[in-house]
Amino acid sequence: MYKRTEMEKIVVLTGAGISAESGIRTFRDGDGLWKTHHFADLATPDAWRRNPELVLEFYNDRRKQLLEVEPNAAHFALTKLEKKYDLHIVTQNVDDLHERAGSSKVLHLHGELRKARSTINPDLIYNIDGWELKLGDKCEKGSQLRPHIVWFGEPVDDFEKAVEIVSCADLLLVIGTSLVVYPAAGLLYHTKANIPIYLIDPGEPKFSQTSNLTFIQDKAASAVPKLVEQLLDKGF
Ligand code: OAD
């Protein structure tokens, strides 16, 4: 009798680096957004209270740019893993490039740039048509809409969900994140013991290589497709 075997589960944690080769700036590299913009003026609840117009303008610019770029080889390669594995992507990115490439299970820890939410009821979330969100754009209860972004100082509501996903992983792949922003960076410590972990990043290694941790010092668009082929051909 045919016995159904459970698919192995791969969890991918992504950061801004995976979208860099699509043309989206990271936050902390030499040309990163937080090198030219002061996050406290743009990405905090206090910034929103002080100058909502400036905050809206910043995210409108990001959204306008997002509409002009495409997923890259790394986003597309990850979708292929779904043929063989139970693949879950947990992303810190607010872009929609994983979805546009075709990934089906994507959890956005830090929100989504192409959505807006009500300032009185966080459950009222809307797609933004085009790039612009303005003062005066209101939810169905009549309150101003804000970007659907988790700002510094705000809770990461989906963190527990992410922990649950990561804790079931048989392999963890971490791509293009500086791992300095918590709680997201702490997800690495929620895996089962000794599962294989791959880190892909062209920057300096953040951990020393161990028997289960492999650091691939390369850009996502070249390293991810190669690793994906290896996982599809040979497993892990
Ligand atoms: P960072 O800008 O902190 O880190 C980007 C990482 O990507 C660095 O380690 C780079 O070396 C790496 N990188 C650069 N180019 C790459 C490439 N072509 N391929 C692969 N990796 C590359 O971005 P995050 O770690 O994502 O939060 O930042 C975490 C959070 O901080 C963001 O989600 C954002 C920010 O404030 C919010 O907006 C709420």
Explain how this protein is built:
The protein is α/β, with parallel strands linked by helices. The protein has 2 domains: 1-24 and 72-110 and 157-236, Rossmann fold, CATH 3.40.50.1220; 25-68 and 115-149, SIR2/SIRT2 'Small Domain' (2-Layer Sandwich), CATH 3.30.1600. It contains 9 helices and 9 strands. The strands form 2 sheets. The protein has a 6-stranded parallel sheet with strand order 3-2-1-7-8-9, with helices on both faces. It is globular. The model has no long low-confidence stretch (mean pLDDT 95). The structure holds 2'-O-acetyl adenosine-5-diphosphoribose (OAD).
Mean pLDDT reading: 95
* Gyration radius from CA atoms, angstroms: 18 Å
In the predicted model, the low-confidence regions spanning at least 5 consecutive residues are none
CATH topology of the largest domain: Rossmann fold
Number of domains: 2
Shape: globular
